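anyone seen this seq b4? input:
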Amino acid sequence: MFVHIYKTGGSSITRLMMPHISEDFRSKYPRTTGACWQSTWHFDAIQHSKLADALPILEKSNVDLDEYTKFIFVRNPYSWILSIWNNFYQSPQGTWKTIYKILLNLCSEES
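predicted toks r here
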């Protein structure tokens, strides 16, 4: 079971795991390209699910989490924030303003 933190190589991990993802835990018609292709490989059809939101769904599905190996990738915090900044800054929706405010708040809390 892969817990995906965005901007930590999730696309690459998803591609590596594709042949091993059970039909029970992915879309009936998974895609490998196009917008939001990753979500077709996730059990809840959401690309960046929160673990807290996913756990109740797994419980309802009678999934025994003890039967699965869980893994996660992390990234250097500075390069992770820079990657998030670059991704959202270049976004046409202008969501970088929200990210910028979050980063400013984080930096001011550290001071």
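The first strand starts at residue 2 and ends at 3. Residues 2 and 71 are 5 Å apart (CA to CA). kinda curious what u guys think
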